[in-house]
């Protein structure tokens, strides 16, 4: 239908152009006349093939319009099974994220404790070195 509408809209435009420019319309008629004389004498075959092509295009276009209407009528809902799988995956991601946050906090605390222990060991070694120095 859309294709037919497009073709029917294009035809009046060409007629209007020929009415606006009568000299060009005459030239087109002369060109068309000479083209008809130089063509082979089988215009009925081309007309038949054009009709066949147009009818097949229109039938395909009708089929596409039916398929489009079928797609428009469908609901845009996710199947229940897929929704459950998605919810389970989201829940698992949330649980992993919580575990990761807990692990990150524990790691940070361990690093802080390690820094404290290293500074304690450094102080002990400095104190030990001072005692040896004074003892000499």
Automatic annotation (TrEMBL):
Where in this protein does the record put region Disordered?
20-47
Gene name of the record: LOC104774604
Per UniProt, the ranges with Basic and acidic residues bias are 28-39
Entry protein name:
Phosphatidylinositol/phosphatidylcholine transfer protein SFH4-like
What is the top-level taxon of the source organism? Eukaryota
């Amino acid at each position: 239908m859309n294709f037919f509408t497009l073709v029917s809209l294009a035809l009046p435009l060409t007629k209007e152009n020929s009415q606006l420019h009568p000299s060009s319309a005459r030239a087109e008629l002369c060109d068309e006349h000479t083209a008809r004389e130089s063509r082979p004498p089988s215009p009925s075959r081309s007309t038949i093939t054009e009709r066949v092509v147009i009818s097949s295009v229109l039938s395909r276009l009708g089929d596409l319009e039916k398929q489009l209407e079928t797609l428009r009528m469908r609901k845009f809902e996710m199947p229940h099974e897929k929704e459950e799988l998605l919810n389970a995956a989201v829940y698992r991601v949330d649980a992993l994220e919580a575990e990761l946050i807990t692990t990150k906090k524990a790691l940070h605390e361990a690093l802080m404790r390690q820094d404290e222990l290293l500074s304690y060991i450094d102080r002990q070694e400095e104190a030990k070195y001072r005692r040896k120095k004074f003892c000499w």
